[in-house]
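Title: Comparing notes on inverse folding

I've been comparing how different people in this forum approach sequence design from structure. To keep things fair, I'm posting one structure and asking everyone to reply with a full sequence. Here's the target:
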């Protein structure tokens, strides 16, 4: 590295030429790397060298000028249904990690489970040169046109649009079979009160796995609650007054599982001695409650990282894949499950 470049840039604003001299590459390579266009054109070793040089001299590309030249701001909109859910905090970390490596920033957009509001957000953001979108809801035809096809779907599928899915059926099957192996036959479902494909898939996988085991489940053994701790806890309290009650419950989310455990304790019921609980997500809350929650690990950071990587491939001109990318899930057994008492 050139000490002369460092001393000069301390006296004036650094330029891309300074980055090029310090990294030992030409300015076009710097432009590709810092413009987020290095994929397939610049080796990872050179990309890392350029990024390190840019940090050392304190060079930041002029985003406004770049937007005028290219029509893009190198911003990705991550439109999530509920930004307060810890799952999406982890998704954002993975998305930002991948985006930063390619010179992009991530804008977190909270749709609050409101389809009409989400459509308005998409139209507003697409008119302000947002480069691409990661969405949890399939856009309408008019919104898809506004996006110019620059979007990736997560946990939902639409023909012709790249999508990233969790292997939800395998995760739910593993959870139910774990409870069956422990000896449970009265298995309930604490479901998210949301109309989204992923929750319909969870319910279907639960029903199918129980049916394969020759078990019929009472309709009363399903409860629905918002993904908000206090409201879910209130729903769970009333639900636990059922007779007969399930001896084990599969929850759509770790937050619901934590609320159910808290409600059971409010009612003087032991977990897992009187009620086994399985969550979904493997979020931090699953490890900080007592007992720690047996859960289906969904690795939300990997989900965010893969979604952004797929979007950037699309933005670079690569053809949209014909089938979704499916990320694995796995059951993590902790202390919230045991044989029925």
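Reply #1:
Here's my take.
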């Amino acid at each position: 590295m050139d000490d002369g470049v460092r001393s000069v840039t301390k006296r004036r604003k650094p330029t891309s030429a300074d980055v090029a001299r310090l990294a030992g590459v030409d300015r076009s390579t710097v432009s590709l790397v810092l413009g987020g266009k290095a994929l397939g054109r610049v080796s990872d070793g050179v990309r890392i060298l350029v990024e390190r040089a840019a940090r050392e001299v304190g060079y930041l590309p002029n985003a406004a000028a770049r937007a005028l030249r290219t029509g893009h701001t190198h911003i990705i909109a991550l439109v999530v249904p509920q930004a307060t859910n810890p799952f999406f905090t982890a998704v954002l970390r993975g998305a930002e990690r991948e985006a930063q490596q390619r010179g992009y920033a991530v804008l977190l957009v909270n749709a609050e489970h409101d389809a009409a509001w989400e459509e308005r957000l998409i139209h507003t953001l697409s008119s302000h040169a947002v480069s691409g979108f990661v969405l949890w809801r399939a856009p309408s035809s008019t919104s898809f046109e506004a996006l110019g096809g620059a979007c990736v779907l997560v946990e939902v599928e639409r023909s012709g649009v790249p999508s990233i899915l969790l292997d939800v059926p395998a995760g739910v099957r593993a959870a139910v079979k774990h409870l069956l192996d422990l000896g449970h036959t009265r298995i309930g479902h604490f479901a998210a009160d949301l109309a989204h494909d992923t929750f319909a898939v969870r319910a279907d996988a639960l029903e199918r796995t129980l049916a394969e085991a020759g078990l019929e489940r009472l309709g009363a053994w399903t409860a629905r609650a918002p993904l908000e701790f206090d409201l879910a806890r209130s729903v769970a309290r009333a639900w636990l007054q059922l007779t007969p009650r399930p001896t084990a419950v599969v929850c759509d989310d770790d937050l619901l599982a934590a609320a159910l455990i808290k409600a059971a304790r409010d009612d003087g019921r032991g977990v897992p001695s009187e009620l086994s609980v399985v969550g979904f997500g493997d979020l931090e809350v699953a490890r900080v409650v007592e007992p720690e929650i047996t859960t289906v690990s969904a690795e939300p950071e990997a989900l965010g990282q893969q979604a952004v990587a797929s979007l950037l491939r699309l933005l670079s001109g690569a053809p949209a894949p014909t089938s979704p990318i499916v990320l694995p899930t796995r059951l993590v057994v902790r202390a919230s499950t045991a044989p029925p008492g």
